[in-house]
Amino acid sequence: MDEGTELSLSIAQIVQRLKGSHLHSQIERQAKDCLHRPEIKLESLKEDVHSYLKTSGWEKKLQNAVYRELQLPPSHPTAPPEHLKEPLAYMRKAQASWEKRILKSLNSMSTELGVPLARQVGVNLSRFRPVYAPKDFLEVLIGLRNPNHDSREEIGARSHWGLIQVPLNVRDIPQLVGIYSLFTNPSLFQTPPRLYLGPVLVVEQDSAAAQQYSRRGCPTGLRADLWALILNSTNQPQDVMHYEQLKAGVIQHDLLVDNLIYKDVKLTASNDDYYFVFEDFLYQVLLCFSRDTGVLEHFKYNSATPPKSYLHGKVGDEDYAVVYPPNGVVPFHGFSMYVAPLCFLYNEPSKLYSVFREMYIRYFFRLHSISSSFSGIVSLCLQFERLLQTHLPQLFYHLRQIGAQPLRIAFKWMVRAFSGYLSTDQLLLLWDRILGYDSLEVVAGTTVLAFSDNLMEVTSLASAEAVLADLSTLKVIPLIQIFLFATAI
Amino acid sequence: MAGKVKWVTDIEKSVLINNFEKREWVPVTESEDWNFYWMSIQTIRNVFSVDTGYRLSDEQLVNHFPNHYELTRKDLMIKNIKRYRKELEKEGSPLAEKDENGKYVYLDFVPVTFMLPADYNLFVEEFRKNPSSTWIMKPCGKAQGKGIFLINKLSQIKKWSRDSRTSTFVAASSGKEAYVISLYIDNPLLIGGKKFDLRLYVLVTTYRPLKCYMYKLGFCRFCTVKYTPSTSELDNMFVHLTNVAIQKHGDDYNHVHGGKWTVSNLRLYLESTRGKEVTNRLFDQIHWIVVQSLKAVAPVMNNDKHCFECYGYDIIIDDKLKPWLIEVNASPSLTSSTANDRILKYSLINDTLNIVTPNGEIPDCRWNRSPPREALGNYQVLYDEEQAQSESAERDLRSRSGQLLGSKGTKGSAGARPAAATWK
């Protein structure tokens, strides 16, 4: 298929998707309503309506909606749907067997505690445990093998010293420097024109421009608006209504996952110096999230598949299958930390909700599903290990020798995109780049920066972990600049 | 070489003792010759009392001003602020400007407050103007949330009325049970649905001229329970009082963070949700009210040269981002409730000592009280009257000689900034 055909197919797809949207009906109504306006002439109807939609800002809204569609992974029209989820068969298989384990764990908890998946009230939270923790997930990633690739090789300077044993293409430092060039030029950072540009972008409501801007970090006072703009989370009345409906659902039905969420918030954010004040907001977002069936749509391009439970006696019969939880996402230990930093930006629950939801279906899902995506956790782990091996080979070798594989220390940071590990101001600057570059790759780079030569002194995994226990003083952005700049020369 | 500082304290707190020991100062007893005495407010009363008072030498330093209570007793602070406003008004100062409702534009920073029983009738008059309001009763001499309660009906405080013949009134008139009653801030700024107040540390090294410093590492103290303004919850003290001493008994008290949130978190949150400009204005206003409260007591303060004081300022921010001064503590708690708290309080004492005993040497209370910038640590100059006066003299001179104002750009002095930023 040549490029032209592909493009027109993509366009057709986007048009198809937007046709069903609320925006479509809004624009349609605007177009009809404007016919009464004096400036709309019958002889130049098409041009006049078009120019009306342009001046009244609807064209910009349409542009942002198209831009959002372009940001989501494209569905190749001729490829089978499972290839859109994950092109590599062995990755799909690994993900499927991981899901089986999660579901089994969920079901056994449900049986053990005598708590059905849905419809229960007032249970003792102390009996609940997280379905899984990042370290369980890491073991699965370490066990990943490509059946067509022999990874057994002698250890040498050119071999890979890390734990991830699958061959994926990840960028090395020169390639990163090329892509993240805006990072490496400190003189471009906070120049006066840039400071004036921020507010202009917010007024102009242009997603694509805001995204470019975010690559060099957002000013604190504009970040909330810029992120919402990049994500096209406009918090329209229908979004607020949607959120209110989800809230009503929380009041009507209890779910087993509610308890997992309560437990997770209690174990993580409630004990966190930065986030404990937002405990209540986290419940408001996460309980609604688990009931939001709109989230299911992202499974088209997520290698994960929502867990199903079957009505009594109908196990395996797809007609009697129910997705559980309704959004298809099983929260794990630390899940609430994806929401926590956003509470610094949005004090309106519905807005907070829509930004989180969009961040999840664009980025965060990749941090806990097995895929070959360059933004996926497997690639990030591999990239981190390769960067560290290139950048600090002696340190890597030392840590490996004492049984402190760097990934064992750093994995939990990456799974949470550093939430709860970096200080919030630094974390938000990091997430600016995730949004700006529309990629989680920067997470792998940041992970390398936490490692430094002072770890040469440690003699065990425990002491290495102790040295790296507190990242709250790490100033990541200047470090990334120095890292890329210094290694580029 | 000068000898080592000999120290005494009647507050056995590790954050103090560790700081003294780090400086290799020598512990002595109260009856020996000492240079530095970190004492409770009970002890300071004796040090300066007419009967038992010491005669302090030039090489002795204590951590309280003799009549600190002019600022730190709730009733006296209010009295002094009221007097200060009247004086400024009489002078025709622009600071005493009033708005169309008769409220001070720049000096309305404490909630409307009355003494009980002394101002009972005045209070009743005010209460009747707005009978749905809630008021908070606080005993004048107590700290850490003791004896505090809320009222929304006059009948609840009948016993403080002048004509009451109950025995409580006798106790009240003897001064022991004196209360202040303040309009309760019923629209506090909520974060995550929770109420909080601010605890800021302020160091004063002299009142005349006034030299004061703000500690950058203040914190917010959060209620563990979600805030509801309904009066049915009036009895639930956990909702309304943010003092950690009280919060600790709440079910949800968390020993990891102790309900404390750093001021830098507050700033990040406010800047992100409300914008940089309003956030800067809020912090400027907070600095402004601290300076004004100190100026209000400066004329009555016994500016003894052997004294310095580190105050704990309690401030509540309302939902319009206006800060209110609630009270000032002379002996902010040096007990550490969490690991971060210990680090904070250790640094607070460390930075305080670095300013008041330059180079950790034996103090000379005749020193000029102008520490070098690098000795400030986490303190920043809040106001330096000496510097402000010389700067304004310089400005006068320049404007008189026809030079352009502001040729030096904005003033570098942090002391002049908050004042200028709020009322210029």
UniProtKB/TrEMBL annotation, chain A:
All residue ranges annotated as the Rab-GAP TBC domain in the record: 217-438
Signal peptide region: none
Sections of the chain in a coiled coil: none
InterPro entries tied to this protein: Rab-GAP-TBC_dom, Rab-GAP_TBC_sf, TBC1D19
PROSITE patterns: TBC_RABGAP
SMART domains: TBC
One Pfam family linked to the record: RabGAP-TBC
Name of the protein in its database record: TBC1 domain family, member 19
Organism: Fundulus heteroclitus (Killifish)
UniProtKB/TrEMBL annotation, chain B:
Keywords: ATP-binding, Cell projection, Cilium, Cytoplasm, Cytoskeleton, Ligase, Microtubule, Nucleotide-binding
GO MF annotation list: ATP binding; tubulin binding; tubulin-glutamic acid ligase activity
Catalysed reaction equations from the record: (L-glutamyl)(n)-gamma-L-glutamyl-L-glutamyl-[protein] + L-glutamate + ATP = (L-glutamyl)(n+1)-gamma-L-glutamyl-L-glutamyl-[protein] + ADP + phosphate + H(+)
Disordered: annotated span: 386-424
This protein's record includes keyword Ligase: yes
GO cellular component terms, semicolon-separated: ciliary basal body; microtubule
Gene Ontology biological process terms, A to Z: microtubule cytoskeleton organization
Subcellular localization(s) per the UniProt record: Cytoplasm, Cytoskeleton, Cilium basal body
InterPro entries, per database record: TTL/TTLL_fam
Record's subunit section: Part of the neuronal tubulin polyglutamylase complex which contains TPGS1, TPGS2, TTLL1, LRRC49 and NICN1. Interacts with PCM1, CSTPP1 and LRRC49.
Family, similarity comment: Belongs to the tubulin polyglutamylase family.
Protein's UniProt name: Polyglutamylase complex subunit TTLL1
